[in-house]
Amino acid sequence: MIEDKEWARDRPWIEDRLRDELFITAFSKEESEQFALQHDPEVLKAVDSLPASKALLQKAKEVVASKTAKKSSTPGVAEAR
């Protein structure tokens, strides 16, 4: 027998699986997967994080370029290579 605590814990997962099965039955496997991806919390979080990721990447490129420029303008560094 399933206890109330277990049922409450697993209910969101059960609802998601039932929704998936209903979509597959009503539409198609592909449409069901598309719907699942469009509503997946991890996918949504990743999409929301893209602008911050792009800004972080740009900042990293700027830091690397700055360090590279400093090394090439420092006397003696080129000769040591």
In short:
The chain is mainly alpha-helical and 81 residues long. It has four helices and no strands.
Query: Regions with pLDDT < 50 over 5+ consecutive residues?
Result: none
Number of helices: 4
Could you give the distance between the termini? 73 Å
State the order of secondary-structure elements, H for helix, E for strand.
HHHH
Using DSSP, what is the number of strands?
A: 0
Topology:
Elements: H1 4-26, H2 29-38, H3 41-73, H4 77-80
Helix pairs in contact: 1-2
Report what the structure shows.
The protein is an all-alpha fold and 81 residues long. The protein is 86% helix and 0% strand. It has 2 domains: 1-39, no CATH class; 42-81. The protein contains 4 helices and no strands. The longest helix is centred in the last third of the chain and has 33 residues, at 41-73. The model has no long low-confidence stretch (mean pLDDT 87).
